[in-house]
TrEMBL record, chain A:
Pfam families: STAS. CDD domains: STAS_anti-anti-sigma_factors. This is Anti-sigma factor antagonist. Keywords: Kinase, Transferase. It comes from Profundibacterium mesophilum KAUST100406-0324. Coiled coil: none annotated.
TrEMBL record, chain B:
The keyword Transferase applies. One of its GO terms (molecular function) is protein serine/threonine kinase activity. Keywords: Kinase, Serine/threonine-protein kinase, Transferase. It comes from the Bacteria. The lineage of its organism: Bacteria, Pseudomonadati, Pseudomonadota, Alphaproteobacteria, Rhodobacterales. This is Anti-sigma regulatory factor. CDD domains: HATPase_RsbW-like. The gene is rsbW. Residues 48-161 form the Histidine kinase/HSP90-like ATPase domain. PANTHER family: ANTI-SIGMA-F FACTOR RSBW-RELATED (PTHR35526), SLR1861 PROTEIN (PTHR35526:SF6).
Length: 120, 173
């Protein structure tokens, strides 16, 4: 069971994943649910991962796939990474391609995305 | 006559490996993605007496997930009739401690009988060109030590070691 709750404010959609795991068993569902949820999304889509405590390389691939699919008109950003999830993005250096917010509320409060660029 | 020393309280066993020789944790399960998810849950539950740090536990779960998922997808190619045999032992390792993991399956061998290398993001590539897959073996190689693979009589046997850093989250070891 994979579901996503969205709320839109101005140019930003927050898509909150209501699942603890985006693993190999859930990655395809995640991709499909995100495809439907972002069909009419505004220019910024923030994936709120606050409830996600486990993400593997399949989940990572599904997040990258979502990023690519909504581009170039819309940009995927991330919010509220748990330590185990942040570790996967950090080890693969994929944290450098996403704007990452502390929380969904912090993302909503951001007028301009605070690009996070570091050498990798 | 000397009195036996008092047994340490349960909570104190965590940091003292010699006081708690773990029996081998062994799980045998069918090769499906949902079985892998369940096996990860049981493995982590079985390791709870070791009181791993969150960081160690998440690394162990991630490496096991990548290894087991790889077997389901590539060794058995989605055939749920396949069987996976996972064993985990805890022991001293140099000046520290480690989990020794052994995973057996009876599916296809690796291409050229070699373990894949895996990849991380190419920092020079445009984000939109990032591949969507291929990170699993990179994560395994980043987090596991002493990976070895042998194929004997139709059985793939992968062994590796997960060093336990034991640092409390946010504090140095």
């Amino acid at each position: 069971m994979m579901d996503v709750t969205t709320r839109t404010q101005g140019t930003m959609m927050i898509a909150s994943v209501n699942a603890a795991r985006i693993d190999a068993a859930a990655a395809v569902q995640f991709r499909d649910v995100m495809q439907a949820a972002t069909a009419d999304a505004p220019s910024r889509v923030v994936l709120d991962l606050a409830q996600v405590t486990f993400l593997d390389s399949s989940g990572l691939g599904a997040v990258i796939g979502t990023m690519k699919r909504i581009a170039p008109d819309r940009r995927l950003e991330l919010a509220a990474l748990n330590p185990a999830v942040a570790k996967v993005f950090r080890l693969t250096c994929l944290d450098t391609i996403f704007v990452i917010h502390e929380s969904a509320d912090a993302a909503l409060a951001s007028e301009v995305p605070d690009g996070r660029a570091h050498a990798c | 006559m000397r009195a036996d020393p008092p047994l340490p309280a349960a909570g104190r066993l965590a940091g003292d490996w010699h006081a708690m020789v773990q029996p081998e944790l062994r799980l045998v399960f069918s090769a499906s993605l949902l079985s892998v998810r369940a096996a990860l849950g049981r493995s982590l539950a079985g390791l709870e007496p070791l009181c791993l740090s969150h960081d160690d536990a998440s690394s162990v779960e991630l490496v096991l997930a990548e290894v087991l998922t790889n077997i389901v997808k590539h060794a058995y190619r989605g055939d749920p009739g396949g069987v996976i045999d996972l064993r985990i032992r805890h022991g001293p390792d140099g000046t520290g401690e480690a989990l020794l993991c052994e995973v057996r399956d009876y599916g296809r061998t690796f291409p050229r009988s070699c373990l894949p290398g895996g990849q991380k993001r190419d920092p020079d590539a445009e984000p939109i060109l990032c591949p969507e897959g291929g990170y699993g073996w990179f994560l395994i190689r980043s987090l596991a030590n002493d990976l070895s693979y042998v194929r004997t009589g139709g059985c793939n046997c992968l062994r590796f070691r997960m060093m336990l850093l034991r640092c409390r989250d946010g504090l140095p070891a």
